[in-house]
C-alpha cells in the first residue's frame, strides 16, 4: 500500500490527473506561488486504488474565468502548467486520441497534446460556445453554445455546418446528436452528416445526458423535477420516465438559486459495460440506475451535505470519481463498498472524462 501526498491545485485551471500507482507528488513545473500553496495544503491519506485512471476536465471555476491549463500526472509525480490567455471561460472538453479540445466562450478553441502537455494550436470557434463532443465515425468536433451548434472537421478544423439552436448537453449516438438544454422544452435530434434537425423529442429542461451503446438508449436528466427519461435511440420514442425526488426545483437561469439547491442531477456517467448509468447529485448521492431494466437501483452516500457535480466511472467499473462542489475537492468512491477511498483537495470539475 502506497502513501499519497495530495496537493492543492488552484482553481481556474484545466486539470488532468491520473490515479494509479501512486507516488509522492512533486511540483517541479509549478510556479513558486503554486508550490507554496501546495506544500501548505498536503492531506496525507492512504488509498487502496491501484488503477491507472486518468481524469480530464475543465476546472469548476472556469465559469468565472481561468488563466492556465494544468496537467497533474500523480503516478508520475509530475505537475505541468500550460498557459492559456487570461480570463478565457470553458466548461466541457472533448478528447480525441492524444488531443484535448478546449472550447471557450471567447470564441477560440485550444488544442492540447496530452503527451507533450503543450497547446499545439488554436482556432476560431463560435462566441459563447463552451461544450465539446467528438463524432468518431464522421471525424467531427462538435462545439455547442447557448445559441448554436457547429461541427468542425477534425482533420482541418474548418467548420462544416452550423445549427442555429444551442444547448448545454449533447449525447451522440452513431450519426445523430441529441441536443438538450436546461431552458428548452424539447430535445433536438441532429443528423451529423447534414447538420439538419430531423426531429424533436418532448423531453426538456435537461442538465446532462448520456448515450448507452449497449442498450441503444439516451438518458436525459431533468434538474428541475428529478425525472430521468430513457429514450430509444433507434425510434426516438420515450421508453420510460423514472421519477425520483431529486429535482432542484429552481429556474436554471438563476445561478444563485442553483448553488443554494439541496438536490438536482449534475453529470451523468455510463458504466463500462453499459449496464448502469450513474448520476451525481447535489443531495450528496451518487445515484445508480439499472440500464438493462431502466430502473432506479440505489443511492451511494458520499459525504454529508456534499454537493456533487462532475462525475466519471473508471474503465473497470470499480470506482466513481466525483467533484464535491461546495468543498472544492474530488473524491474517489468504491462502487462495490460505497466508501470514499481517496480525496483530492483543490481538484474540481463540473464535467469529468475518464480514460
Quick overview:
This protein has 355 residues and is mostly beta strands.
Explained architecture:
By secondary structure, the chain is mostly beta strands. The chain has a domain at 90-175: Thrombin, subunit H, CATH 2.40.10. The chain is 4% helix and 50% strand. The chain has 2 helices and 31 strands. It has helices spanning 32-39, 255-260; strands at 3-5, 13-19, 44-46, 53-58, 66-73, 78-88, 94-96, 99-103, 108-113, 118-124, 129-135, 140-145, 149-153, 159-163, 169-173, 176-180, 187-191, 196-201, 206-212, 217-222, 227-232, 238-243, 265-270, 276-281, 285-290, 295-301, 308-313, 319-324, 329-334, 340-345, 353-354. Strands 6-5-2-4-31 form a 5-stranded mixed sheet, with no helix packed on it. A hairpin with a 4-residue loop joins strand 9 and strand 10 (118-124). The longest helix has 8 residues, at 32-39. Mean pLDDT is 81; it is low at 1-13 and 19-48.
Count of distinct strands: 31
Provide the β-strand percentage band: over 45%
Strand order of the largest sheet: 6-5-2-4-31
CATH topology group of the domain at 90-175: Thrombin, subunit H
End-to-end Cα distance, whole Å, is 23 Å
Amount of helix: under 10%
- In the CATH hierarchy, the architecture of the domain at 90-175 is Beta Barrel
Class from helix and strand fractions:
mainly beta
Helix count equals: 2
Fold topology:
Blueprint: E1 3-5, E2 13-19, H1 32-39, E3 44-46, E4 53-58, E5 66-73, E6 78-88, E7 94-96, E8 99-103, E9 108-113, E10 118-124, E11 129-135, E12 140-145, E13 149-153, E14 159-163, E15 169-173, E16 176-180, E17 187-191, E18 196-201, E19 206-212, E20 217-222, E21 227-232, E22 238-243, H2 255-260, E23 265-270, E24 276-281, E25 285-290, E26 295-301, E27 308-313, E28 319-324, E29 329-334, E30 340-345, E31 353-354
Parallel strand pairs: 2-5
Antiparallel strand pairs: 1-3, 2-4, 4-31, 5-6, 7-8, 8-9, 9-10, 11-12, 12-13, 13-14, 15-16, 16-17, 17-18, 19-20, 20-21, 21-22, 23-24, 24-25, 25-26, 27-28, 28-29, 29-30
